[in-house]
Amino acid sequence: MAIIQVEPVIQQGHESLVHHILLYQCGSSFSDSVLDDGHECYHPNMPDAFLTCETVIFAWAIGGEGFSYPPHVGLSLGTPLDPHYVLLEVHYDNPTYKEGLIDNSGLRLFYTADIRKYDAGVIEAGLWVSLFHTIPPGLPDFRSEGHCTLECLEEALEAEKPSGIHVFAVLLHAHLAGRGIRLRHFRKGEEMRLLAYDDDFDFNFQEFQYLKEEQTILPGDNLITECRYNTKDRARMTWGGLSTRNEMCLSYLLYYPRINLTRCASIPDIMEQLQFIGVKEIYRPVT
């Protein structure tokens, strides 16, 4: 079997509350107690089993509509490598702190018994979401970039698919300060055609872009997710994080055939960050 279409199911009246949804593949052994109820994500009481849910198999963001896979590609189900359990992670935006809200939003999956020729995969590329991602206040045009390095891609592709993988759609993702995102593709030091771009990024309209032509990523290629922000109306530093008032710089690549690579991201160097904000010397306590 294969999933061939995914569409969001957003509870009526909650269209502005549901910010984005991620569907993860989990480990193969979950206890019944874990399966009974949902849990707050990244909370200390979150079950340890949820930590095995690391492989993104689909992503949706606010403003997006349904997505259909190409006729030759599907999200495989039923083989030992396919998901036995999945985790649905829903991110909410509730700036007015409304209380007592109960939400039943999610994703509707359409499948077929006809096996597709290729199994689809997802790679999350860009900047690792962390406080090390800093954006100064009061700037109309500030840029951050996250790297999917040639070393990372070479190791993954050489081991499984030396002939490369084929990207057919991309979702670009940032938050409220985002104004533009580009996914750049390099091979042997030369820049290839842009994989995807949105130079007029709108936080309220984020969905997968189908590529006009599939683009091949080979061992030794590297990717840069470049994000442009406007913080002119902000008086304080903007940090990387999960809140919509924090920021992200991510791209989700849908591709085939599936390989064992789910995340290819970089994190800013903390020493460079400290120098950027004017820290000249760090004193370490004597022990």
TrEMBL record:
Domain Copper type II ascorbate-dependent monooxygenase C-terminal residue range list: 118-266
GO biological process, any: norepinephrine biosynthetic process
Cofactor requirement: Cu(2+)
Ranges of residues in domain Copper type II ascorbate-dependent monooxygenase N-terminal: 3-98
Any GO molecular function: copper ion binding
TM helices/strands, residue ranges: none
Organism domain of life: Eukaryota
UniProt keyword terms in alphabetical order: Copper, Disulfide bond, Glycoprotein
Endpoints of the signal sequence: none
Any single Gene Ontology cellular-component annotation: extracellular space
Pfam families according to UniProt: Cu2_monoox_C, Cu2_monooxygen
PANTHER family membership: DBH-LIKE MONOOXYGENASE PROTEIN 1, DOPAMINE BETA HYDROXYLASE RELATED
Record family assignment: Belongs to the copper type II ascorbate-dependent monooxygenase family.
Name of the molecule in the record: Uncharacterized protein
